[in-house]
């Protein structure tokens, strides 16, 4: 039985949930109350020594990652895509498909190197600092502007790629495409939707990704307010 130890309000957790639904894998939720630092408990640390969420348990096998690079969910999602290759959406190349393997890693590296470093830092400044009362509790707007400028320089390359093909690595969806969803969805409430809209091919692609049933299921019962904070719907 697959068990996901995480929290539905966590971006990283929802990334894994999205892949679980894409692969049509039945799983059991084990909710971790990270607000009360349950992920720092001795019981949790015994399973995930770095004390981060989420981690996945599959018939006794435990897989996790570490932040900030790479975020913990990438290892989990690749494991799920490979082990459960015979069901759901095809997200992992067949044995011996070296070109497919290269494209898989290419798509993942695009998100990891050209999207996450900017959007995760914007999220940290605009959302996390206030929630955790870090420093003044307010965003360093100079840094936010720097990260936005860096992001826009990368979105130009995305526009070039997505102007000629449906997904990042061709006409077939990949893990790299799916990996963009959590932060893209969260930070667009902070005004970045207008930034995304400046790049029509990128905007059409991310909006199409957000309409996937797997992502809707991953966000069932979750809402994001105008400050980028996720909360459970009543």
Structural description of this entry:
The protein has 234 residues and is of the alpha+beta class. The chain folds into 2 domains: 2-84, 3-Layer(aba) Sandwich (Glutaredoxin), CATH 3.40.30; 102-232, Glutathione S-transferase Yfyf (Class Pi), Chain A, domain 2 (Up-down Bundle). It has 11 helices and 6 strands. It has helices spanning 11-22, 42-45, 73-83, 98-114, 116-131, 141-162, 175-179, 181-187, 192-197, 200-210, 213-218, and strands at residues 2-6, 27-31, 55-58, 61-63, 222-224, 230-232. The strands form 2 sheets. The chain has a 4-stranded mixed β-sheet with strand order 2-1-3-4. Strands 5-6 form a two-stranded antiparallel sheet. Helix 1 (11-22) runs parallel beside helix 3, helix 1 (11-22) packs across helix 8 and helix 6 (141-162) packs across helix 10 (200-210). It is globular. The two termini are 29 Å apart. The model has no long low-confidence stretch (mean pLDDT 91).
* Name given to the CATH architecture of the largest domain: Up-down Bundle
Average predicted local confidence, pLDDT: 91
Query: What is the CATH class designation of the largest domain?
Result: Mainly Alpha
The percentage of residues in β strands lies in 5-15%
* DSSP helical segment count: 11
Oligomeric description of these chains: single chain
From the N-terminal CA to the C-terminal CA, the straight-line distance is 29 Å
State the total count of DSSP E strands. Answer: 6
Query: What is the helix content?
Result: 40-55%
Round the Cα radius of gyration to an integer and report it: 17 Å
Structural class: alpha+beta
What profile does the largest beta sheet have? 4 strands, mixed
List the strand order in the largest sheet. Answer: 2-1-3-4
How many structurally independent domains?
A: 2
> Uncertain regions: pLDDT < 50 for 5+ in a row?
none
């Amino acid at each position: 039985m697959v068990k996901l130890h995480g929290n539905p309000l966590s971006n990283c957790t929802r990334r894994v949930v999205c892949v679980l639904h894409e692969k049509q894998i039945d799983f059991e939720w084990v909710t971790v109350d990270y607000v009360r630092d349950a992920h720092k408990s001795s019981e949790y640390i015994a399973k995930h020594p770095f004390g981060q969420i989420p981690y996945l348990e599959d018939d006794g096998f435990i897989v996790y990652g570490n932040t900030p690079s790479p975020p913990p969910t990438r290892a989990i999602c690749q494991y799920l895509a490979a082990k459960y290759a015979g069901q759901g959406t095809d997200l992992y190349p067949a044995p011996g498909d070296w070109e497919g393997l290269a494209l898989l890693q290419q798509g993942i590296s695009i998100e990891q190197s050209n999207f996450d470093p900017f959007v995760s830092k914007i999220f940290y400044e605009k959302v996390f600092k206030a929630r955790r009362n870090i420093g003044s509790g307010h965003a360093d707007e100079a840094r936010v502007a720097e990260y936005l400028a860096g992001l826009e320089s990368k979105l130009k390359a995305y526009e070039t790629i997505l102007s000629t093909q449906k997904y990042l690595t061709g006409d077939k969806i990949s893990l790299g495409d799916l990996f963009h969803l959590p932060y893209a969805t969260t930070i667009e409430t902070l005004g970045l939707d207008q930034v995304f809209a400046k790049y029509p091919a990128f905007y059409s692609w991310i909006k199409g990704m957000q309409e996937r049933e797997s992502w809707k299921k991953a966000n069932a019962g979750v809402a994001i307010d105008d400050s980028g904070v996720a909360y459970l719907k009543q």
